[in-house]
Design a protein that fits this description.
2 copies of one chain form a homodimer. By secondary structure, chain A is α+β, with helices and mostly antiparallel strands. Chain A has 9 helices and 8 strands. In chain A, the strands form 2 sheets. In chain A, strands 3-8-4-5-6-7 form a 6-stranded antiparallel β-sheet. The first copy, chain A, has a two-stranded antiparallel ribbon with strand order 1-2. Chain A binds a DNA duplex through helix 3.
Chain lengths: 232, 232
DNA sequence: AATCGAAGTTAAATTTGACTGATTATTTAC
DNA sequence: GTAAATAATCAGTCAAATTTAACTTCGATT
């Protein structure tokens, strides 16, 4: 079955919101995510509900049905595979691909996406570190937390960053943070919540990053480091 | 300036029709090309005219302005570059790419298309032999004629075939005709206009092709052959 | 020059997705 | 437990692109 770009965008927005926040998503949250008005969202939710893509209770909120989730994951799969293509093959920078991928994700051709997947050699993550759902909609989830919530002294590895803010991505380029970078948290400034971190590269650099930045970087506790600690 | 997919499709249709037939295109011809109704065409022509994309005189017909032509050529450039990508990189067959390219041609990103052009190594022709307009809209035009109009005995080379009919392309695959194939016209059957041709490959094969087929294959008089004749 | 049929146009209605303004539910604060 | 604040919905419009049905215009023929 085929859906309009508008419908697909709503399903994707609901999916993203129910990932980051709670399972059940509010009308206003969707309106903000899509830069539209709550009244428009109400209209569309009625429509999606009649197509059994969402569970919608008036005034209470909305969640994806199995069917809705599988459509959303399919859009996400397409978006992220195209991002890999744009960066790896066409040599775009990672801060330039989101907008174009927003258009490409609505191209309808199952066959093309499977061929693209082969061509890209079955990537598991997009250029921002977000996992790519497989054909069946399975998605690798590793335990992560925002950099802003890591405790002092901990060593972590950058897993992913928000792909929708080009300014953030350009900033990270400039200070030398990329997917896979190892960071150590040195100090948390009480005044504004800034973090002092060491960025391990060819040489270790110390930086101060704002909460705005650290909230948008997802990290894992570094396993190698963990083992080393255990060994002691 | 940005145009809707509908506007772009109309401009492309007018462009194609004014190439194959005359400069000035009729409402009904456009309606047929786009599988829509003449009334819809009238409405759109008024709109395109107010945007200075076409010269439109009620009841008389329509032609592209310079501006309209350059938009049309840009869409054609995108369509044909994507077709090259789909065949060369993703390994689609030449009969499968038209539909998908019809969607991809509406993606908006000048930058992406120029990067795609680089990535594909500046192809001059798409998989069906149609020339790809360059950045400025210049397009290579070689003197061609439909196979159906070639005289008996002549040796010709296949330059291009219609990309919009998958059945034709599959048929050509089956009988071993591809872009660049050399054909010799043996006989024209008076009854239905069928042609008997020799297809030169690893071995030469004789075939009978219907007018439907021969009208959709564009060929050039073979140059090597011409020289050989001159030499005599 | 009157007319007939084909080609083309207008008018009115439909569909999709959005917006504005008014109204109704739900929560929160006291 | 009620009033104010917040959230969500409803009703009415709008714009784009289409369709159907009814009406013009053109031009070829008589």
């Amino acid at each position: 079955m085929d859906f309009s770009s508008a419908e697909e965008n709503y399903l994707k927005a609901i999916y993203h919101l129910s990932e980051t926040d709670s399972e059940i998503v509010s009308t206003n949250a969707i309106a903000e995510e899509l830069n539209t008005k709550p009244a428009s969202v109400s209209d569309m939710l009625k429509k999606l509900s009649s197509k059994n893509l969402v569970n919608y209770i008036r005034y209470k909120g909305v969640s994806l049905t199995e069917k809705g989730k599988s459509v959303a994951l399919w859009i996400v799969r397409k978006h992220r595979l195209w991002e890999v293509f744009l960066v790896e093959k066409l040599k775009f920078n990672w801060d330039e691909v989101h907008e174009v991928a927003e258009q490409l994700e609505h191209i309808k051709s199952r066959r093309m996406i499977e061929k693209l997947d082969v061509y890209l050699n079955f990537p598991k993550f997009d250029p921002h570190g977000d996992p790519i759902p497989d054909k069946e909609g399975n998605i690798a989830i590793l335990p992560t937390l925002p950099l802003s919530e890591v405790s002092i002294g901990e060593v972590v590895k950058v897993v992913s960053v928000s792909d929708s803010d080009a300014n953030l991505l350009q900033y990270l380029d400039k200070v030398g943070i990329s997917i896979g970078s190892e960071l150590q948290i040195v100090e948390r400034i009480a005044f504004d919540g800034s973090l002092e971190i060491n960025i391990k590269g060819s040489e270790t650099v110390s930086r101060l990053v704002s909460p705005q930045v650290s909230q948008n970087i997802l990290v894992t506790i570094d396993n190698k480091q963990k083992k080393a600690l255990k060994g002691k």
